[in-house]
Amino acid sequence: MNATETMQIEVKKTKRSRLPDVDWKKLGFGNFFSDHMFITEFSGGQWKNSRIVPYGKFEISPTLSALHYGQSIFEGMKAYKYSNGEVYMFRPLDNLKRMNVSAERMAMATVPEELFMEGLLQLVRLDSNWVPKEEGRSLYIRPLLFATEEHIGVKISDTYDLIIMTSPVETYYSQPLKVLVETKYTRAVPGGVGFAKTAGNYGRSHYPTRLAQQKGYNQLIWTDGYEHKYLEESGTMNVMCVINDTLVTPGLHDTILAGITRDSVIITAKDLGFKVEERKISVDELVDSHKKETLQEIFGVGTAATIAPISLFGYNGNDYNLPPITDNNVGGKIKKQLDDIRKGRAADRHGWMYKV
Ligand SMILES: *Cc1c(COP(=O)(O)O)cnc(C)c1O
Predict the structure, then answer these.
(1) 305 or 65, which is more confident?
(2) 144 exposed, middle or buried (CB, 10 Å; 0-12, 13-18, 19+)?
(3) Has domain 177-342 been given CATH number 3.40.50.720?
(4) For residue 257, how far is its CA from the centre of ligand 1 (angstroms)?
């Protein structure tokens, strides 16, 4: 099989579009899925059977190795519709790169760029009328790669499926979040898989998150696994603070997921003339700067929400309220600039928008 044969994508279109069934008032996040999905299979060392089919259920074996042994990773990115009707994806090649970093770490097959981009482009083009045009809405794109070997002994799977599905969404977390600084449970440890977007990282975070929610918080701020002293991430987002007008965020290492939003926010902040520091932030520094009133903002950054403002953090039995969120906040200004780039209203200086 040569490269062009591997790239052949068979398309089976749906008989009836489900677009009229979408309840746009209850759009939310991840509730509705577009008409089609892209599937490709890895076996015998090659990707094959690439196809676009109507979105729907499929059969799996009870021995599917992803379910037992956790070789399962995903990605998340968005497509936007400009006012002239053109559709653009935001930094899809960076998501592919990161998916392959996750795949390497989980000993899974990596996905060639030509195959991924061809499948993705054809899929989003076919379902382009699912890409919402309204402000605050977009098409969320979810690639999922998982082990498909049907074998109950523990081993590295020799076969994988990649599925790309898409979902029209509205911006996640519209209310400011109350977060609890987690000082017992750990999301990721050095040498572990914190930098990979792998299923188990989410499964393991649910229990401590639920405990925080029972105490009235929305999310956790994860701290390092050794001393629980330094900030790592906020829920499933990267975390950023504004202290003394400087945007401060933990530097990247293997316990932190290298968010594409994180990178875009840092670059946009610098473009807008803000000072940015990537360094360790201790919880003591947060409390201290809160006391001195130099702590202006804390927010989470990720594809689903872009920027999710935090209104309060809890630590050691105390709650620390943050100043109210306004359009003049550093986070708000960066979000507006990113929204303008994504909707084609501001110059795309860094080549982030990828035409569909
Ligand atoms: C996906 C994710 C992020 C954000 O990454 P983006 O590329 O910005 O969406 C941050 N932290 C964790 C743990 C994540 O899974």
Answers:
(1) 65
(2) middle
(3) no
(4) 6
